[in-house]
Write a structure and sequence with these properties.
Layout: H1 2-30, H2 32-37, E1 41-42, E2 49-52, E3 54-58, E4 61-66, E5 72-84, E6 88-97, E7 103-109, E8 118-121, E9 123-126, E10 129-133, H3 134-137, E11 143-152, E12 159-168, H4 173-184, H5 209-233, H6 237-273, H7 278-283, H8 288-301, E13 308-312, H9 315-325, E14 330-334, H10 338-342, E15 349-352, E16 358-363, E17 379-380, E18 390-393, E19 397-398, E20 403-413, E21 417-426, E22 432-442, E23 446-456, E24 461-469, E25 475-483, E26 490-495, E27 502-509, E28 514-517
Length: 519
Amino acid sequence: MKPLKLCIPALAGLLAALLLWLGYCAWFFWGDHYRLALRPVNVPLSGWQVLAGQGQVEDGVLRLEAPGPRGEVLAAGPVIGPLPGSDIERVIVRFEQTGDYHMVGIGLSPAMALSAVHRATGRWLDERSVEVLEQDLRLDSEPIRLVSLGIRGNVSPGFVVGSVELHRARPDWTGLQSMLFDSLVDGSEWTQRSINHAQSGTAPLRLSPVVVVLVWLMIAAALGWLGLRIGTVAPNRSLSVTFGLMVLGAMGLLDLGWQLSLWTRHADALARYSGQSPVERREHGVDAGLYRFVHDLKDQLADPGRRMVVFAATEFIFRRAMYYAIPHPVIGKRGLDPRWVARMRPGEVLLVFDRSDLAELHEIDPGAGALPEVVSSHWLSEDLQAPAPWLAVSPWFGGGPDQLAKVELVVSAGSTGWSRLEVLSQGADGSVRPHALREFYLEGEGERTLVLPFPMSEAGRYRFRFRTLGVDGVEVRVARLLPVRHSSDLIVLRPHDTSLRFLVRRLQEGEFGSAWEIP
């Protein structure tokens, strides 16, 4: 009788797993996922290159104009998001214009080289479409990374390729279970810390995630039951009951994390199975707006060597923005730190994703008047004597119109290290506050010019001072105060809890943040 009592829960669990498994698969087949899974994958023509003959990519189409020495024009392009060769049913090339030809060949390669290409002669579906079937190419399960197109003949007046499509084979029941398991254990994108160790994309066991999760829950229940059962016969019953409850709680927490990971991997697997590129997947993610903002900024900068400094209020936005900014050199911090801004160099990009960190943010009108006469000529080193640790301190100046000015110092450095140039402001009540600040890294010997721009008001009085931070042999040769002529894209920003003001140049404004350049 006891074995029968033990079998009833096991059979009920297996029946529940089977019903959930069937319902899960039916939900996939009847929903939009299956339609997306059968959608053709378009190979972007922007990455294609003509390897033999004459041709070019222009206005989103591939133009093949003349054959090479062997009487063939050959072009190839990469597949974004490699697809297993066993999943491809056919390849269709659609032309916007055709010319004279002897043969049209289409090939697929698992490597980014033509030496491993599987090539076959195409069949014309109509006057402007050619296809090659999977059985003609004899593909295996290796991921396809390259598509090639070769045309033999005169090709006059030229072929214009409008699109290249990879059509997936309709998945059978086994293929569906393979995809569901890959969504649970994503072996194709799992790597260890060393790039020399990579797990294969093929999994030896094909099970539905529902079955695996139910087995996991049954193991958790069995361990908890075992702990409680031992407590009924053991002398220290409370300790065993506590142990059983702890096991159940730990397994429950692990299962919550696993379920979240399962859902994320399943969504990624469906996106890859439907042929969506990484850009398309991010365009519909939870941080799509952040991705578009950083992506547009990278297109605007063009130079991948310009450093970005990211400030965000939450860890999620901070980490994702830094990830999307790659390959630019990027550092970041939670919350807007004035000390970090002060050490940014001209040309570097400041990204702020939380405007609440700013106490002041406004554009400036270029000043039309001249600077006060007292500072129209530059100071020499003997006019800037100051007690340690300051190497130079100017007299107070002011009385000019509201405008922008800049302090320009010519210094000679004898060693390497940081230095600080700051401007102080004096209010009507006589209080002195930091007004502008920039820190410079002095490298090696020789002269260097340090520049600090700052806004001036008619009612304010100002002075600047300069010091080094652990650098010896630095001497101030000349100090100048000059007006700044600028366009209307300069902005003054002041972080909270500080009187420091920073001049930045607007690069990009958006719903999710702002990007400025240090002038």
